[in-house]
Amino acid sequence: MNTPDYIRFPGNTRVKYDILYMLLESQGRVFSWDEIAGRTGITVEEAKRNIQSLLDEGFSVITASEAGCTVSEGQDSLSAPGIYSQLRTQVLGRQICYTLTTASTNDDARVLAESCPDGTLVICETQTKGKGRLGRQWESPRGGIFMSLILKPEIQPARIPPLALVAGYATARALERAGLNAVVKWPNDVLVQGRKLAGILCEISAQQGRIQYLIVGIGINANIPAALMPPGVRERSTSVLDQTGKITDRNLLIAGVLNEFEPCYLRFLESGLEDLIPEIEPKLAYVGSPVMIHNAALGSEEIQHGILQGLDSDGSLLLSSSAGEIKRFAAGDLSLRPK
Ligand code: ATP
Ligand code: BTN
Questions:
Q1: CB 133 less than 6 A from any atom of ligand 2
Q2: What's domain 286-336's architecture?
Q3: The domain at 80-282 falls in which architecture?
């Protein structure tokens, strides 16, 4: 597997990325070649070569002329400083790895986990092989948010599965702050108006009963019109853009997810899911409604019906049958649908 070259923030050693960040931080301002050279300690010729290299890499938001360089105002560009400046976390997102395009940030995060600290955030503008749960594909066009957190908790691997729910809850809360009425669909989705707006994919690497690292991948349809999704996905999905009619600031939304997730994650590590259930349950989709559950890996033969009651202390879903019996379902390969 080839991991692309990631820009690391802080700790980025390439002057061209320092220039990029400088331009992104002051969108709309034209930096003269002399100023770029002076601020980064290189010659004007080198500054021009670095800008050309950024343009060749695909950073088309940059405009270069004889006068200098600029990134025009209002560009919805992901940028580590843009995220960083809005973070209120202690651990999550304190190191950010950014690249333009890659197969999957979850796959890259697994490689980067060897050399990156706990809480590192891996982000990109587009994925060519975005992964969903159960081997499904995650559509990842430009304008979306594709982020993976590298976590290194010291807890038993068996305690990890409900973490996808916690991440979904944090994402829903961040979306609420952006004005959306988001709910969590067990076990790993975020819905707005019954359509999928975000999904979570947690992957774990453990050896001899110890977690080496955990990857929490979050995909959010931010500035993507759902109409541009392929058939089959478009009917069931939505985006922040579709819901609000406005381009959303992805840096703010990413920081918002991390700001919401960190306290929940720390509480989860400390006392498990149980403590968070009273907060998550009111945001759970379909509570009190008839639903069906089927084993997605086996096909639809094993459909179970019931009224969704809520969550068990380990994150299993509780359904009541018509006879009043309560059944528990652990996530695994199961898929939930409204009836
Ligand atoms: P469940 O988790 O209950 O099985 P699901 O059918 O949504 O729900 P997931 O594995 O959670 O399945 O998500 C992957 C599916 O999401 C894909 O098969 C596709 O139908 C849909 N999907 C893919 N990309 C996107 C996207 N960007 N936005 C919304 N939905 C998407
Ligand atoms: C799902 O709904 O099934 C989970 C979707 C998870 C998508 C995110 S996008 C960032 C990260 N990289 C991936 O390949 N997948 C996750």
A1: yes
A2: Roll (2.30)
A3: 2-Layer Sandwich (3.30)
- Give the model's pLDDT for residue 248: 92
CA 44 to chain centre: 38
pLDDT band of residue 297 (cuts 50, 70, 90) is low
Question: Is 188 touching ligand 2 by the criterion CB < 6 Å?
Answer: yes
**Ligand 1 atom at minimal distance to the Cα of residue 185:** 3
Is pLDDT at 74 greater than 80 in this prediction?
A: no
Residue 302 has pLDDT above 80, yes or no: no
Alpha-carbon distance 209 to 206, whole Å? 6
CA of 291 to the centre of ligand 2 (A): 24
Candidates 68, 54, 63, 131; CA nearest to 98 is: 54
Q: Report which bound ligand comes closest to the CA of 335.
A: 1
> How does pLDDT run across 154-188, given as a tens digit for each residue?
999 999 999 999 999 999 999 999 999 999 999 99
**Is there a contact between 255 and 86 (Cβ–Cβ < 8 Å)?**
yes
Residues 183-210 have pLDDT tens digits of 999 999 999 999 999 999 999 999 988 9
Arch. (CATH architecture) of 7-70? Orthogonal Bundle (1.10)
Distance 127 CA to ligand 2 centre (A): 10
Parallel/antiparallel/unpaired status of strands 121-127 and 68-71: unpaired
CA of 163 to the centre of ligand 2 (A): 14
Q: Mean pLDDT in the chain?
A: 92
Q: How far is the CA of 130 from the centre of ligand 2 (A)?
A: 6
Contact 166, 269 (CB under 8 A): no
Choose one of 138, 145, 308, 333 to mutate for the ligand 1 pocket test, by most ligand atoms within 8 angstroms of C-beta.
138
